[in-house]
Amino acid sequence: MCALPTAAVVTVGTELTSGLRRDTNGSEIARALAEAGYHVASLSALPDDLLALESALRTLTSLHALVIVTGGLGPTHDDITREAASRALGRPLASDNGVVERLAALAGRHSEPGARAQMARQADVLEGAALLAAVAGTAPGQIVPTPAGALVLLPGPPNEMRPLLSRALEGRIPSTPPVRLRCIGITESDAQHRVQPAIAARDVDLTLLATPDDVEVVLFARDGRAEDLGPAAEAAKLALGTSCYSDDGASLAETVVDLARRSNARIACAESCTGGLVAAALTDVPGSSDVFEGGVVAYANAMKSGLLDVPEQLIARYGAVSDRTAIAMAEGALQVGDATLTVSTTGIAGPAGGSEAKPVGLVWFGIARHDGRTHAVERRFGGDRDMVRRRATATALDLLRRSLLEG
Amino acid sequence: MCALPTAAVVTVGTELTSGLRRDTNGSEIARALAEAGYHVASLSALPDDLLALESALRTLTSLHALVIVTGGLGPTHDDITREAASRALGRPLASDNGVVERLAALAGRHSEPGARAQMARQADVLEGAALLAAVAGTAPGQIVPTPAGALVLLPGPPNEMRPLLSRALEGRIPSTPPVRLRCIGITESDAQHRVQPAIAARDVDLTLLATPDDVEVVLFARDGRAEDLGPAAEAAKLALGTSCYSDDGASLAETVVDLARRSNARIACAESCTGGLVAAALTDVPGSSDVFEGGVVAYANAMKSGLLDVPEQLIARYGAVSDRTAIAMAEGALQVGDATLTVSTTGIAGPAGGSEAKPVGLVWFGIARHDGRTHAVERRFGGDRDMVRRRATATALDLLRRSLLEG
């Protein structure tokens, strides 16, 4: 399985090994490496400990064609990555004039003179290293030759790391990337039982990944043989039906925005228990203003009546969490601005507010369309407040998607 | 710094090293270990590779008092953790009758006889290991004696792992947890330069953690000596002033909800570029309905006029992204429901929509209070769409906080 060149990823920071912060860089870099054709042999987090990092880098750089380190390139005393790499590879550090100048230009931001002097540490470059100029932030990345290949040092903040990672991996021939089918409204086992027979005759490997709000069916070319991947993906999609919402990595919100754009629909939402998450997911998509009117977060009942014209008697009679209120909220959202399709959420996210008849996790959704068709959907979600809100948000987006597919 | 016993955490799964899934167990276990008084020397993810895991476990168990492995305890062929641990420690595997019986009782769930046979692998226990009976799921955990202390094997699914981790760490004396001062509106370097002299005389260690929207100042008791931690935290807070919004782990939104509750304020928001994120952050706090009325996501200008009574001529004359529109939006939100304090956001999140006069990253905020005081604040944020939205959301929450502090 390891005909591929091997790579290792190291993230540096005591905040990671003490659990104060969860790392996101490691898995992002591992994925980029896998797509660039490396077998990632290890992914590790180490504390800000010079000797430990030096020793790990000495071992890893002798074993792997590519070692990527993120973090510890900042200006403060616990930023020890440059020093550790220098010792591990026996390459002395020297200050780079270009970087010094760039830093001086940025130093005005800091009011403390001591902070300015400290910034200068970021200009220390290993002998023989190629620089990756900072795109965001101040710390440049470095590509250093090693006995087995290269060591790449990248800054820790994800927005600073990302552009330099792309630059470092530029020009490497990508292996066949896997096909990722994202699905909603289906369990992991059911997805497996539908897909497995459909692709049995194909030379592909299957992995399933489940999160609380979706299931991903991932197909890999076996032994680098790419020709079966396309037909297998088509067969799997057919087997998954409308549960599958994307085959190109698009998120559920991106799929909704794309479908709305193609059918000239304009969307609005009226949220209670999701509290802004549906609007936030849609507006997270660049260009969503083409199809998204806006929304109302009607947390208090006064907002439901005041902004969405939900009759107070209706709420009093059926309750805020009911099919009637859900539909009235969605219809109310249709009256504001120029929306042609709206979704509403009203439910009990917890931890308080549940009853025997209306337990925590119960959520009603309303869908209203400008052609007059409306309907309500009831769901009971497990999990804590955060989980209920996440699942309700995904369901609201999925209801918009299914309504757009119906045309 | 390492008078503490050392520990290592290993998460097992090719889905982690290939970046298909992001690990959450590692940081959770690391934090529990730090709180139980261990220095976590490394946190690593390894692929489902028997030889690689065997070799890693041989090294780690000889170095560290405690090694915790999660994942790879399931029934399928790629669950190799039991076998790897057995080889690394030279302790043979034997089937445990109690576990076999428990599995047999659960096997009825699976219709395939093959699946039942495969389940039996989960009953294989290392010689001399103590069992941690499964609370959720089917795989038990194991605590195995090692030359340096113990190796603990835990299942991978977080809900199965969590109760067994608590059991494995039971009875260990917790060390003094660190004090975490969360700050906003200050750079990492400036925070360090204010705090360092203030705590110089104290026996504490200082770490700074920066994200795009806040800075965390973390103080640790040095060598387990707790008596200096309280006075050092007080001195640090004084030096940080109003930049510090929490000393007990509370998020910015939690701080706002708490301040609003104590001053009987009711909050509403009117969002354009943040698209629901401010409302989502506030409603993420359990009990936020006590102080949060709701909000309007006025993405289209028609929504700004229709729901918030922002005069169309005002938008035409000054532009949607202006101090005037920001204030009119905040004032509009004050008219709906029973809010006493409102915040608005209007800006250019990008990637499109910027101009020379109003570049991507420009955001205007409006604050309106029921006593008639209003003001507008302008900020220019760097970064991509996601970053601009995150930073604008944090700033909107911070403006609410500062307004509540003024009283």
Summary tags:
six-stranded mixed sheet; 407 residues; Molybdenum Cofactor Biosythetic Enzyme, Chain A; Maf protein; five-stranded mixed sheet; homodimer; Alpha-Beta Plaits; alpha/beta
Would you kindly provide a brief summary of this structure?
By secondary structure, chain A is α/β, with parallel strands linked by helices. The first copy, chain A, is built from 15 helices and 17 strands. The first copy, chain A, has 3 domains: 164 residues, Molybdenum Cofactor Biosythetic Enzyme, Chain A (3-Layer(aba) Sandwich), CATH 3.40.980.10; 68 residues, Alpha-Beta Plaits; 144 residues, CinA-like (Maf protein).
Uncertain ranges of chain A: none
Instruction: Name the overall outline of chain A.
Output: globular
CATH superfamily of the largest domain in chain A: MoaB/Mog-like domain
Give me the number of helical elements of chain A: 15
Largest sheet of chain A: 6 strands, mixed
Q: What is the highest CATH level, the class of the largest domain in chain A?
A: Alpha Beta
Give the largest interface pair and sizes. Answer: A-B, 90 and 92 residues
Beta-strand portion of chain A reads 15-25%
Distance between the termini of chain A: 47 Å
Assign the structural class of chain A, choosing from mainly alpha, mainly beta, alpha/beta, alpha+beta, or little secondary structure: alpha/beta
Determine the CATH topology of the largest domain in chain A: Molybdenum Cofactor Biosythetic Enzyme, Chain A
Mean pLDDT reading of chain A: 90
Query: How are the strands of the largest sheet of chain A arranged?
Result: 2-1-3-8-7-6
As for the number of domains of chain A, it is: 3
CATH architecture of the largest domain in chain A: 3-Layer(aba) Sandwich
Number of strand elements of chain A: 17
How large, in whole angstroms, is the Cα Rg of chain A? Answer: 26 Å
Oligomeric status: homodimer
Give the fraction of residues assigned to helices of chain A. 25-40%
